[in-house]
């Protein structure tokens, strides 16, 4: 399963954090080796209950409401990537277009450590590390040996 940045998407470096810095990670991205196994298919960020959660990129809200007793917001972006946030009291509605930085909702208590679970999905079952998308894909430059 791919867990890196999809190189084919030119907009991949145009992401912003969904909450203000500092980004305190409560639980890291830990996808399963096989899609049906247990794992952590996103990252938990802990900005504090009541923090406004914003769209990391422009997209279409495809879901905003309760799902299995938790409020969830999901946004589909132009390149097909989908971001999901929980638990968040929605300030948006399905079929609403949002610009990057638009307030999606406010963080509710209840998730592990009262953190925001942020997931990014590509296709049917490929999960990406949201924090890598914020930083962009690293570029390794040649190392010149120092003159002796």
Task: Explain how this protein is built.
The chain is mainly β and 148 residues long. The chain contains 1 helix and 11 strands, in the order βββββββββββα. Strands 1, 2, 4, 5, 6, 8, 10 and 11 form an 8-stranded antiparallel β-sheet that branches. A hairpin with a 5-residue loop joins β5 and β6. The chain is globular, with a radius of gyration of 16 Å. The N terminus is likely disordered.
Give, in order, the helices and strands.
EEEEEEEEEEEH
Q: For the residues shown, what is the average pLDDT?
A: 83
Distance between the termini: 44 Å
Shape: globular
Helix content: under 10%
- Give the low-confidence spans: 1-13
* Quantity of strands, as a count: 11
The description of the largest β-sheet is: 8 strands, antiparallel
Q: Beta-sheet strand percentage? A: 25-35%
Rg, nearest Å: 16 Å
Number of helices: 1
Q: Which structural class do the helices and strands define?
A: mainly beta
């Amino acid at each position: 399963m791919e867990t890196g940045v999809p190189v084919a998407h030119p907009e991949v470096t145009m992401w912003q954090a969904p909450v203000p810095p500092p980004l305190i990670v409560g639980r890291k991205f830990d996808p399963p080796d096989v899609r049906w196994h247990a794992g952590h298919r996103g990252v938990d960020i802990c900005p504090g209950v009541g923090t406004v959660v914003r769209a990391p990129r422009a997209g279409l809200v495809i879901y905003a409401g309760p799902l299995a007793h938790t409020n969830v917001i999901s946004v589909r972006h132009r390149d097909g990537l989908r971001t999901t946030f929980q638990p968040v009291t929605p300030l948006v509605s399905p079929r609403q277009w949002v610009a990057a930085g638009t307030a999606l909702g406010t963080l509710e208590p209840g998730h592990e450590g009262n953190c925001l679970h942020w997931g990014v999905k590509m296709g049917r079952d490929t999960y990406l590390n949201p924090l890598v998308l914020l930083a962009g894909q690293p570029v390794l430059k040649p190392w010149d040996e120092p003159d002796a």
